[in-house]
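Section: Multi-chain targets

For targets with more than one molecule, the full set of components is provided together so that the structure can be written out for the assembly as a whole rather than chain by chain. Components appear in the order listed by the source. The example entry contains two components.
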Amino acid sequence: MTSHTFETMGTVVSLVLPDRAGSGQAVSAVTNRFRDFDERYSLYREDSELSRIARGELALTASSEVLRATYAAALDWRTATGGAFTPHRPDDTIDLNGIVKALAMQAAAQDILHAGFTDWCLNAGGDVLCSGREADGSPWQVGIVDPTNRASLLFAVSMDGARHAIATSGSAERGDHIWSATAIDPRFAQATVIADTIETADVLATAIIAGGSIALESILQRWRVDVLTVARDGEMTATPGFASLLASS
Amino acid sequence: MRTRATLSGIFASVAILLVGWEAGMAAITNTTTGATTTTTGTSAAPTPAPSASAVPGAGASTSPAPATAPSGSFTGSSVNTRYGDVQVQIVVASGTITDVKALRLTDADGRSVQISTRAAPILRSEVLSSQSARVSSVGGATYTSDAYLSSLQSALDQAGL
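Its structure, encoded as tokens over all components, is:
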């Protein structure tokens, strides 16, 4: 296995792939995939399509079909989470950062699978989507950093369950811009969600950070996900499924 | 106000449980009434008013239940609500509700809703014991390109696993 890294979307993507023919092409496909999403949606890029919409140079109705589909998906998440997740900044600018990285990861996963790889691990800025197993046949193990000490791990989970997507959202990281259409509940410092898709995991982790305990309860009633939260006072909660995935050694 | 409208969505699922509670209580009330016709009708302990405050344990503040107060599990009939089908079971000990279980809950589209998953407090030691695991990837709240350089993931990538 070799780890391939590249910079995109203001962060770094690491892709671990077996060393065999085709890995170079797979890495290229994934790199291009992230670049496409970055160029279309990143607001830090003045020339992105979304920046042109934000500046009023391009009407949303005249934007590309794919951008409108992404915006519609984000609005669906806004509705589903009761506004805890929202694609709108407080000044009403459309910001799709909360969903675009996950969508790029899902598209990249398809690229990797089409290239014939079934054992791989994709980490985009701290959100992890993996498939299959490590080279020695053991399940992928993902460590999650301690929000109070980035140099250490708080815990590690074994990705040997049915779900292979794990996303973490935190209120302390500058890279995470948490907005909400509801009042922000500052209870949680960090939330980690394991879900069927990285899109679900990422959005719901953000919604839990924004919506606090009420959002967490609501989400656990409506989605098949496992969650571990770290409150600002250090107290942690975990769903039974999450607790059973904690790595044993 | 917009905030109110958007809040309603997230409270909808809470409402499901409350509606379920009320629906279940309505059915259970009937059952209990039928079963206790021979006892005094003045004892209200087994059927506290369904409200948000009627959580398990709330009945403890009422006056001591008479010896004839019912114990056991009581299952309400399945009730169709605008949120979906709801069926609730309560566990009663000497007239005090000690537990409430939603036996069936579907959303408006008929899909079953998972409600057994609850986030429970977990001891730090339980979590920390997993720290020593050999990890292949390091997750966390999104880091910037700069932060990556000093991150554990960066160290892993450089080590080439």
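Confidence is low (pLDDT under 50) at residues 1-66 of chain B.
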